[in-house]
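Researcher: Here's a chain I'd like modeled. Treat it as a single chain, no partners, no ligands.
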Amino acid sequence: MWACSALALPGCSADGATGRPQLFVLPPEPAAPVTQPAPDVAILAPGQAAPPASAASADPAACATASVEVELVRQPVDIIIAIDNSASMDDEARAVEANLNVNFAEILQQSGVDYRVILVSEHRERNLQDTAVCILSPLSTLSVCPSAEPGTSERFFQYSIEVGSRDSFQVLLESFDGREPDDFGLAPRGWAERLRPEAKQVFLEITDDDENSSAQEFLAALTALAPQFFGTDPTQPDLVWHSIVGLAARQVATEPYLATDPIETRECDGDVFNAGATYQELSRLTGGLRFPICEFDGYDAVFRAIAQDVVLGSRNACELPIPEPPEGRALDLGAVAVSYRPGSGGPARVLGQVRDVAACGADAFLVDGAGVHLCPDACDVVSTDPNAAVEVLFTCESTLLR
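Model: Modeled as a single isolated chain. Structure tokens:
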């Protein structure tokens, strides 16, 4: 999630932090309404009348508008990938090796996301281990595969343990804290050693089969095991689960099934055991994406899509803070002005303020005491534009508090 801090521009002081802004506020449009300032401070709710003002106390030379610059900080992301090592997974293992660096990690790196990849799957020490997985640099430190052991790096760690066709949940739970050790003794306390409490936790399951236990049972066990990482409520877990499983492809094979789509019971055109309904349900419960495992030639697009979803999920460019008003001023929340400038360099689009969510649209925002909130459709547009600029102008009311 994005964390925001506000910084008033020259002439309107407000506490804030500096940094590399990616979402920022530009000077107001000439037509923006400006009222006369007064010496005392208050925040006015939309529609609330200002207290009586004293004309003698107003300073005509003082600033009457407060423009804010928003610094955005990406939330770190830990990505846990579980890959089935059963006998039917040889083609899938090679496809993962070919795409994890180029079409996954590279996108995350270029986006600036602070990410880690934790791979829970058997490491390939010999060529005869057809279904084991070996990851090369730059994600790992290995220059050649197969190798004697995984190449741990700042961004990558492999917990080498065999994952069967129907026991990913069990393996993940028992290897989390090292109850089931990894093959090389690299993490005595389990892959939990690599997790960060401040990070968002994202899972990716890759298998041609299904699970022995239910999605609800797994979430209950996972949140009970480590609520600091995965949340305390199994009905609202703090994680996202993506699935590459045996479900049938859509008309465009690389187009994902979304959380709002029902479980697909048909199987994809390949050597799979079933459609992976349990993993699909887990993706639906956590807002994850689902792809068919049979489309080996399309794994590049699949990994790019999942990486892009991780990038977007690490940001929230749609919640803007209300700055502290300048000394002797009050902010009129009913007169906030917002516009969005596309990263492509196109013309700015003015967003209109609405009273409630029911009135929301693609060009609208709401304001309350907690901040400025872009409406969902407007948020979708801004969040998918990595170089977007949002301009916000807060107008000061003349106010005298007695």
